[in-house]
Amino acid sequence: MGKSLFWKGVLYGALAGGALSLLDKSTRETVFDNCRKTSSNVGYYLKHPSEAVNQVKDVSNKVKTAIDQVSEDVAFITGTVEEIREMAPEVTQIVQNTKQAFSDIKLKGSSELPEKSADDSVQIPH
Prior knowledge:
Layout: H1 2-21, H2 25-47, H3 49-108
């Protein structure tokens, strides 16, 4: 019994809210304009059902294309993540080797580092 009263209350509340909102003139005019446009569109599609079918097909094709594109993107991202996972141990080893090399240089002292003269320049490959 409580369930049916709840939904009845929701329905009556929505109807009361809709009726109260129609007291505003601009809202009322907008609602009536939208109702006229909707009834005109419904009448058109009742007279031309093939047009409605074609539009539904077009929309469904666009949705299918979008879903296919998203599927391809997800597959690409999944592959890239898998590559990164496979590379992680190698990258970790490179970082550890680099850290060790810098630690060795630091322990030996900075005097063994080559000095850079003013003529030394960084060559950037093109």
